[in-house]
């Protein structure tokens, strides 16, 4: 189908999750603070936006420990990740909000049988309950998360894997040149471009001038509906 806004014939769409489908970044930030404060560590919201928003949990903890010249063992890292995941799971029980237009866009693409995937730096345990809350669990053929890759965005590994799995699920019937990734961060844009995908950025987390490496930039996914 012709992908709205880009005007390009599109075979498949891969969505980032946090910052594109749902506004959970403040919830992730709060969960990090609850884990780090007892250790005498923290970072500000501005630092989160500047440095941490593109990381998965592993690299976020690694970065904060490195920044404070503290040793982080693999065992402690795993414990911190589990603690943060448990806190996040509790926080989202009060509900989450989808960004304007995104659920309509997902429904429109799904109704038109466009192959859909999610490529996120979050844990699968963070994503699945939210998809269920929003009633869109069945819309996505493939979900690639931090559990599936070794490196965070901007490394292209996650998008390359999401594309390969999605294309394989459809008998390798489409190309990267006709696959759109929807992102909200410079790191995510770099990852998707590094995987050879078309990138549409939405200004949910950053201003348009910070997203200029994307092929297309929009202020809202309502534009697509």
Question: Which features characterize this protein?
Answer:
Rossmann fold, 2 domains, 8 strands, single chain, alpha/beta, 225 residues, 6-stranded parallel beta sheet, DNA polymerase, domain 1
Topology (elements, then pairings):
Layout: E1 2-3, E2 8-9, E3 12-15, H1 25-36, H2 45-52, H3 57-67, H4 74-91, H5 102-111, E4 116-119, H6 124-134, E5 142-144, H7 157-169, E6 179-183, H8 186-194, E7 198-202, E8 216-218
Parallel strand pairs: 3-4, 3-6, 4-5, 6-7, 7-8
Antiparallel strand pairs: 1-2
Helix pairs in contact: 1-4, 3-4
Give a description of the structure.
With 225 residues, the protein is α/β, with parallel strands linked by helices. The protein folds into two domains: 2-23 and 97-224, Rossmann fold, CATH 3.40.50.1000; 25-94, DNA polymerase, domain 1. It has eight helices and eight strands, in the order E-E-E-H-H-H-H-H-E-H-E-H-E-H-E-E. A six-stranded parallel beta sheet has the order 5-4-3-6-7-8, sandwiched between helices. A two-stranded antiparallel sheet has the order 1-2. Strand 6 (179-183), helix 8 and strand 7 form a beta-alpha-beta unit. Helix 1 (25-36) crosses helix 4 (74-91).
């Amino acid at each position: 189908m012709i992908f709205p806004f880009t005007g390009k014939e599109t075979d498949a769409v891969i969505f980032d999750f946090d910052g594109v489908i749902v506004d959970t970044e403040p919830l992730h930030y709060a969960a990090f603070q609850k884990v780090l404060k007892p250790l005498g560590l923290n970072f500000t919201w501005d630092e989160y936006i500047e440095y941490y928003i593109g990381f998965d949990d592993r690299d976020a903890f690694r970065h904060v420990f490195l920044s404070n010249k503290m040793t982080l063992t693999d065992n402690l890292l795993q414990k911190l990740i589990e603690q943060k995941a448990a806190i996040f799971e509790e926080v989202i029980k009060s509900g989450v909000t989808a960004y304007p237009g995104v659920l309509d866009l997902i429904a429109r693409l799904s109704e038109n049988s466009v192959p859909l995937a999610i490529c996120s730096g979050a844990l699968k345990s963070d994503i699945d309950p939210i998809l269920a809350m929003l009633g869109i669990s069945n819309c996505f053929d493939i979900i690639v998360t931090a559990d599936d890759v070794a490196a965070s965005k901007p490394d292209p590994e996650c998008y390359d894997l999401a594309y390969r799995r999605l294309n394989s699920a459809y008998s390798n019937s489409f190309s990267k040149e006709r696959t759109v990734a929807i992102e909200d961060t410079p790191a995510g844009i770099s990852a998707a471009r590094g995987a050879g995908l078309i990138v549409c950025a939405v200004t949910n987390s950053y201003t348009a001038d910070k997203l200029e490496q994307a092929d297309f930039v929009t202020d809202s996914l309502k534009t697509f509906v």
